[in-house]
Amino acid sequence: MAARARFSLSPFYFFLLNAFLYLPLLLLVIFSFNDSTSLVFPLRGFTLQWYRDLMQTPELIESVVNSLLLAVGSGLAATVLGTLAAIGLVRFRFAGRGLFLSITAMPLVIPSVVLAVALLIGLIQLNVPLSLWTVGLGHVVISLPVVVMIVAARLVGISATLEEAAMDLGTTFWGAQWRVTLPLAMPAIVAGFLNAFTTSFDEFALAFFLIGRQPTLPIYLYSQLRFPSRLPLVVAVAALIIAGSVLLIIFTEWLRRWGSEE
Amino acid sequence: MERNKLSWLTLFIGPSALWLLLLFVLPMGAMALFTFRAGSFGAEREVFTLEHYRDFLSQHSYHLLLWRSTWMSLWVAVLSIVLSYPVAHYLVFRAGDRRILYLLILMVPGWISFLLRIFAWKVILGSGGALNSLLLWSGLIHEATPILLYSPLAVVVVLVYVWIPFAALPIFASLQRIDNSLLEAAADLGSPQWETFLRVVLPLSMPGVGAAFFLVFIPTLGEYVTPLLVGGVNGIMYGNVIQSQFSRALNWPLGSLLSLVMLVVVLPIMLLFNRLIKLEEIVEI
């Protein structure tokens, strides 16, 4: 007990590490309201100019729309594929299960540049023109492992006896999945989707290789970094994305933890 | 019944297995075959050659860069683990009921756009940047210089910044799984706290540390975005030479070969990762 009462550096270190993580982001948010085109101290004064400019930049709006379409599309595809795979992995033991798991997990760690080159070469040889679609194909590959893991983790917690009980009461296996397992796993499935959505919305390294003429938001922002006069605009978008991400993450985690506790 | 099981299995596993086969496994094969082609387009693409292999073997700059990228990735992985381990430990053993909330606070920056987080550092470190102007303004320095920016060190610092939340997560998960009775037993047997940590907690958290290591080390090996933004000429990594074969040099076969080499380096590490790490270490909390 004496050890408990002893002064501990850990809370202070926790605070320090978080300061390190949050300060750069906070700085972007502060600069987004600063009345100056260069991002330097001292601050000049408060303005909403940059946010107003955002609305008058059609290429930016277009790239946001592209990114939203991409993230929703690839997110939905990854969620359907990943949920089905998670059910299969948790409920069945089959030959090749280990191999399937290994391959599913690989895109989680494989360097993006390798996957990007492989997909680019593969698609080009099949004469598939590069577009948002080709980026989407790649995004499903990298989102899939996380969806499978999140949904599988939840399914493990749902006892198979519930399904068996439903089947004893006369429903089919498929009916049991639809009426028992899916509703119980729903918070995890939605969390999986939101995860895949964010992954795709923020993704740059793959998109840089596979994008055609319609830029995604990260690609557009990157292209604007070359122009110093566009910097405040990028910073304002960054501040909006930071705010949006924080809200989305809190919601996702709420679904994943508290939402599934009932 | 057996036939039924098989058709369910096809329904559940089939779609993602097919997706991964067509868009993950086969493209890797296509990339491997493309390394034998003479050029990127037209008639040249139809000619088979070993020229790029000779090129790669004779060019020491590629080997040096691969070696340096390995070192940088090692540093990034080790530093992210060393910095995040104490926090994970604090969360699991000291933070009590607030641990999940605190973990979320730590994770939030991790889920914010990778590109923007690197961009934030460019803003901070640049010669006309925030840190410089702050130091000038406060009179600590007298002329603007890019601090740290455009060096391998800048790349390592920014990548550690990017990866800390992801390194903390698996360590947290493995610490969380340690049975409290083991710690009580150690205390009852008169073991001082540091010894309990070294002989019980640390060994039992090794799966998490391992997962964190792989999770950071492998993707970092192929990084090209961070060096592009904060690395400058001196801070480039192996991923950058791959990328430049597709953007500037337009030598796709050589780019494919460089990428294949990366895959060959990374594949055994990934297989080891699969062997040693249960995926639950990463997500389940």
Number of helical regions of chain B? 13
Number of strand segments of chain B: 0
Order of helices and strands of chain B: HHHHHHHHHHHHH
**CATH architecture label of chain A:** Orthogonal Bundle
Question: What is the total number of structural domains of chain B?
Answer: 1
- Which term fits the overall shape of chain A? globular
Task: Look at the structure and give the CATH class of chain A.
Answer: Mainly Alpha
Helix content of chain A: over 70%
Uncertain segments of chain B are: none
Based on helices, strands and strand pairing, what is the structural class of chain A? mainly alpha
Beta content of chain A comes to under 5%
Tell me the helix content of chain B.
over 70%
CATH topology of chain B: MetI-like fold
CATH fold node name of chain A: MetI-like fold
Radius of gyration of chain B: 24 Å
* Oligomeric state as shown: heterodimer
Mind explaining what this structure looks like?
The complex is a heterodimer of chains A (262) and B (285). Chain A is mainly alpha-helical. Chain A has one domain (59-260): Orthogonal Bundle (MetI-like fold), CATH 1.10.3720. Chain A is built from 12 helices and no strands. In chain A, α2 (10-32) crosses α12 (231-256), α3 (49-55) packs across α12 (231-256) and α4 (58-91) packs antiparallel against α9. The radius of gyration of chain A is 23 Å and the shape is globular. With 285 residues, chain B is mainly α. Chain B contains 13 helices and no strands. Chain B has helices spanning 2-34, 51-58, 60-93, 99-107, 114-125, 130-137, 152-176, 180-188, 193-221, 225-231, 238-247, 252-276, 280-283. The longest helix of chain B has 34 residues, at 60-93. Chain B is globular and about 75 Å long. Chain B starts with a helix and ends with a helix. The chains are: A mainly alpha (262), B mainly alpha (285). At the A-B interface, α2, α4, α5, α6 and α7 of A face α1, α3, α4, α5 and α6 of B.
